[in-house]
């Protein structure tokens, strides 16, 4: 199958603001004191620094333009759906800063034979997941970006996740999973086409 690769610059965001790790270290030490711990004891004295470095990593999406994940595209003779299933992701609930994690299923119907690399879909999920989030917004952001950047005829995103804010606190229901779906274009307008793709995702 012949293909023609193109790389497009899509970033219009200002340069990212560096993470203030010192402020995080101070805040973590204060939290440890507030819950009755001694932040200077052996097991905790390096915890503020570890947490600061961890936040740089798990919130790295705040310093990325997710659209750049789709900058590399190519044209192929393909006008059927593209589905990538079971993309693992980790995010943090913005209400409690506890993790939620699961898998994303990403599908789109190319327009004019323009597609992106399969790994780029996983990078798009990652860029939006690595920031304080709610699952509903995360699902919609991925769908909107795919539709806009690829001018896709249709987009369908399904995300399944377990939220630690529901399993280790509050209602405490381990094993419960939240499923969210976002559909755009032909998959929003035509139920039969949408159901075909949902079957592929299961």
UniProtKB/TrEMBL annotation:
Pathway: Cofactor biosynthesis; 7,8-dihydroneopterin triphosphate biosynthesis; 7,8-dihydroneopterin triphosphate from GTP: step 1/1. HAMAP family: FolE. It comes from Sulfobacillus harzensis. The gene is folE. PROSITE patterns: GTP_CYCLOHYDROL_1_1, GTP_CYCLOHYDROL_1_2. It is an enzyme of class 3 (hydrolase). This is GTP cyclohydrolase 1. PANTHER family: GTP CYCLOHYDROLASE 1 (PTHR11109:SF7), GTP CYCLOHYDROLASE I (PTHR11109). One of its GO terms (cellular component) is cytoplasm. One of its GO terms (molecular function) is zinc ion binding. Residues 24-201 form the GTP cyclohydrolase I domain.
């Amino acid at each position: 199958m012949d293909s023609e690769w193109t790389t497009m610059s899509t970033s219009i965001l200002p340069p990212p603001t560096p993470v203030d790790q010192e402020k995080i270290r101070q805040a973590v030490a204060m939290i440890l004191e507030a819950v009755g711990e001694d932040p200077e004891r052996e097991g905790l004295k390096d915890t503020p620094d570890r947490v600061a470095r961890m936040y740089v990593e798990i919130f790295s999406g705040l310093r990325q333009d997710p659209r750049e994940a789709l900058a590399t595209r190519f044209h192929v003779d393909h006008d059927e759906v593209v589905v990538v299933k079971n993309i693992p992701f980790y995010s943090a609930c913005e209400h409690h800063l506890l993790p939620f994690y699961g898998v994303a299923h990403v599908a789109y119907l190319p327009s004019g034979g323009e597609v992106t690399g399969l790994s780029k879909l996983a990078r798009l999920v990652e860029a939006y997941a690595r920031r304080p989030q709610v699952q509903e917004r995360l699902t919609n952001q991925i769908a909107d970006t795919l539709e806009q950047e690829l001018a896709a005829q249709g987009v369908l995103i399904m995300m399944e996740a377990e939220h630690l804010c529901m399993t280790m606190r509050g209602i405490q229901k381990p094993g419960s999973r939240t499923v969210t779906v976002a559909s755009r274009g032909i998959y929003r307008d035509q139920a039969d086409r949408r159901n075909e793709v949902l079957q592929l995702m299961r």
